[in-house]
Amino acid sequence: MTEFLDFLKHKYAYVAVGEFKPGKFQEAQDLYEKAVSTYIQGFKGAYLLQEPGTDRGIAVIFWESIADMEDNQSEAYEAILNQMSHLFTKAPTTSFYEVCSEIQPPN
Q: Which helix (H) or strand (E) is 97 found in, with range?
């Protein structure tokens, strides 16, 4: 029964869309990976996507709950975000979504 109840639980996704100053994507990626490494409880995975040939990207971070995301905003996390902020051309657009469908490839 536990597996069935786990199946019914939805994950949440924090999504940030932004553009970095020319040539700053790699530095931002390094800081992103450092920030994500601070996450503990409720963290379910993260992706950083880059539009080929540009400094535009999308960060997607999956959480068990909204509360878990808020609980992981530590001082270390905030310090890393402050280091990253000057790399953006403008503040990224951020949103929070409920994961409604997740499709895994067949084994």
A: strand 93-98
